[in-house]
Specification:
There is one protein chain. By secondary structure, the protein is α+β, with helices and mostly antiparallel strands. It contains 4 helices and 7 strands. The strands form 3 sheets. It has a 3-stranded antiparallel sheet. The chain has a two-stranded antiparallel sheet with strand order 2-4. It is globular and about 50 Å long.
Length: 150
């Protein structure tokens, strides 16, 4: 998974019925982020969305292939798909695939809006362009593995 922490920017627009094609289109073009939600955290997520808070999301590879979108069903049976165009990416904080950023513990936002990171999280950051390229490379590697078979 390719992690990023974005500032959420409402208003959010619900996709009309039968818009699964739109969702797949966003995934294909890498214009979507995935936010998994633990079963007991839905109210926190709604508050975060309404208060323009930061939230960790996953940038899936093009098409969403090769990744588990929703984690373990027992803990978090669903998630949401966010259109990147509705988010403020100018101040996105990104980490490489597999990096355990734990922003809920290592990100502090001052009253002035300044972000500080602890535990070496700042030094491990990568650019959004690097994150996108890594996701594409990961998909290409997965396709090579699928072609070779077990």
């Amino acid at each position: 998974e390719h992690h990023a922490c974005f500032k959420l920017a409402p208003p959010l627009v619900a996709m009309p019925e039968r818009s699964h094609r739109n969702a797949f289109g966003l995934l294909r073009s890498q214009d979507a982020l995935i936010k998994t939600v633990k079963n007991d955290d839905w109210l926190s997520l709604v508050f975060d969305l309404l208060s323009h808070s930061r939230s960790s999301c996953t940038l899936p590879p093009p098409g969403g292939g090769g990744m588990r979108l929703f984690g373990r069903v027992e803990e978090g049976c669903a998630g949401i798909l966010l259109a990147r165009g509705a988010l403020d990416e100018s101040a996105a904080l990104c980490w490489p695939s597999g990096y355990n950023a734990k922003t809920e513990h290592h990100l502090t936002i001052s009253r002035s809006g300044a972000v500080s990171l602890s535990g070496g999280r700042d030094a491990a950051r990568v650019s959004l362009a690097d994150l996108e390229a890594s996701a594409r490379e990961g998909l290409a590697a997965a396709r090579r593995r699928w072609r070779r078979g077990p």
